[in-house]
TrEMBL record:
PANTHER family: HTH-TYPE TRANSCRIPTIONAL REGULATOR, METHYLPHOSPHONATE SYNTHASE. The lineage of its organism: Bacteria, Bacillati, Actinomycetota, Actinomycetes, Streptosporangiales. This is Helix-turn-helix transcriptional regulator. Residues 6-60 form the HTH cro/C1-type domain. SUPFAM superfamilies: lambda repressor-like DNA-binding domains (SSF47413).
């Protein structure tokens, strides 16, 4: 999901893999693997890619939560149409102390409940 969101943002900006990889100082094949979900990005690489794309990490993660919520809604709808009783996957705020982001702004942490 994370890689798909990165790819969607990159394509919406009309940018190439090569362009973003150079700006993020990572190899183009590695960025491609991340976008396809075949490799996990470290926090440093993820920050570099977000910086290269000009997006905040929080906005990227919000897009991933949105995608997961949409996928889960489709799962629930399909199961209900088949007569199954299912519940949506709950999304809740994590019980973590407030963190400060850039400029001292509070940062919320979201997690998917199991």
């Amino acid at each position: 999901m994370l890689g798909a969101a990165l790819r969607r943002i990159r394509r919406a900006q009309g940018r190439t893999l090569a362009d973003v990889a150079v700006a993020a100082r990572i190899s183009m094949p590695y960025l491609s693997e991340i976008e396809r979900g075949r490799k996990e990005a470290s926090s440093e690489v993820l920050a570099a890619v977000c910086d290269a794309l000009g997006v905040e990490l929080a906005d990227l993660l919000a897009a991933v939560v949105h995608d997961l919520t949409r996928v889960d809604a489709a799962r629930v709808e399909g199961a209900r149409a088949a007569g199954a009783t299912v519940r949506p996957m709950p999304v809740r705020r994590a019980a973590a102390p407030p963190a400060s982001g850039a400029g001292g702004a509070a940062v919320s942490v979201l997690s998917l409940a199991a």
